[in-house]
Each structure stands twice: as structure tokens, then as C-alpha cells.
Amino acid sequence: xxxxxxxxxxxxxxxxxxxxxxGGNRGTGLATVKHLARAGATxxxxxxxEGKALQAIEKLNHxxxxxxxxxxxxxxxxxxxxxxxxxxAETFMEKEKRLDxxxxxxxxxxxxxxxxxxxxxxxxxxxxxxxxxFTRTLISLLTSTATEFNSDVRIVNxxxxxxxxxxxxxxxxxxxxxxxxxxxxxxxxxxRYAHSKLLDxxxxxxxxKHFNSVSPPIPIVAMSIHPGGVDTFSHNWPLPWxxxxxxALAINDAEHGSYTSVFAAAAKVVRDEREKYCGxxxxxxxxxxxAVPSATARDDKLADDLWSLTMSLLKDLGx
Length: 319
Known about the structure:
InterPro entries: NAD(P)-bd_dom_sf, SDR_fam. By secondary structure, the chain is α/β, with parallel strands linked by helices. The chain has helices at 27-38, 50-63, 82-95, 122-146, 188-213, 240-247, 254-257, 259-266, 268-272, 274-277, 300-317, and strands at residues 18-22, 42-47, 71-76, 101-104, 153-158, 220-225, 281-284, 287-291.
């Protein structure tokens, strides 16, 4: 699948800019890191496993980061515990005095329903809560960067078109509303994933509302995106050389699958038409298209309820 978006020509000047991409050591995250570093940025690959991250960085350096000659660094980030996410953000702020773009890319697609030590769905912790804490901890640095002359600060949250499969009647009045198991549903694991991605879109709306409502408004653009289907699996199948071109007829490879993330993070048009993209939900057909999420994902009261529940939860956890 091809795209008219060209990361070599359609990105802003990123030299001197600092970016974080979570889960950036493989797949679309790694491709996102590569494109942003090639445009000149210092990109922090936020990932849990140091060995895998350094191996990915070595691969990028070996391939070369021309033409922009940016840099890629590792930041330890473990999203399985929101406390660790907070520590990672604090560590970053000891290293850097600016943050221009945060791409919350990391997440899990499937798995059995399990609870964390805090009694929360592991998928919700990884796909939503820890990213919320990581971002909240970095808000002061993002804000100070945004107040600089000619700033272009963005937060990009990876959601999914799967959010549309979340059943109606979702509510966020108590902690157990984050632990919905979808027992008795077809593919309950997928339903839990869809639910977690709904959280990401609602959270993004609340973030933008916060930035716009303070006085003076904080010039940060928050976006959620659907990156499209991405082939991160055919290389594990028998005879991958046979299957890869067939799979490519239906979905993107990681390189092109990263384009919506890269667009949201650094496309010139987002800078030039900032108001248009504030709080927007983007998809990949074509890359960067402002799309309309589900009615549930557009529910401002639901977004407010989720925000309040999350803040109350974090207060109880002492985070």
C-alpha cells in the first residue's frame, strides 16, 4: 500500500528538537524513530529491554540516519507499572531541558485478562494508565518548551479503529469500569484491546481541553491516531518470503505503517494548520486524514468521567 505522504519532504525542521517515542525498539515504533531522527531530531527510544533497544539503535546507526544526522538514545521505560513510568519521565527530565514531541506508541495487542499488583487490568495499565502517568509527569517540560518562540509541541497517542468495537454503555464511575473482561463476548481479548484504545482517544480529548482552557492557553497539539493495519507477524510464519508479498496486498509493512505517527509528530501541515489538528483523531487513508471516531469516543462527559476517575485512582495509589 502506498501513500502520498513523504517523510523526506513533508516534515518540519527537527534539528535541535527532542522527541520521545515509546515502544520504539521494533515495528512501527522503530520506523517512527528512524524517520524522526533522519529529520534531525534527538529521539529517545523509550523501551523496557536495554539489550533490544541498543541492538535496534545499532541497526539504525549502521543503516545511517542521513540526511538529517539526528541521534537516537535509549530511555528505560516499563509501562507495566505506572510508578516506573513516572520514574522514567523524571529520569528524562534530568537529561534534557526541552521536549518537543511525545509519541505514546507502546502497547499490547492481546493477552489473557490479568490484573496488576494494584488490581488493574494489565492491558489498561500498559495501553493507557502508565502512558497517562508518563505524559502527566512530562507536562511541565512540554509546557515550558511550548512557550518558546516559534514552538511546535505535540503529543501523539496511538489509538486504533478497533475502538469502534467497544460496546455501548461504557461508563467510568468506579475502578472496576477499567477492568471490564467482556466474558461471553466473541474474542474477549480483542474487545479489551478495543476498550483500551477508546480510553486513549477520550484521554487525548481531555488533554487538549486542558491545554485550551487554561489562561493563557498552552500551545500544545494533542492527537490520537489510527495507524492502520501493519504486518508485524509474517516474518514469523513458515516460508516468510512467500507470505510477505501476499500480506502486503492487504496491510502495510512497518515502514509505511509508521507514516501516520510520523505525520502527527512532525508534518508541516500540522504546524501550519494547528487549530485544525488540536484534539483530532487521524487515520491512514490517506495518511494524516482527520477522521471521526465513534460516538462514544466523542462523548465529552465520558471523557471528563474518565479523567476524574484516573486522577482519583492515581491519588489513591500515591502517584
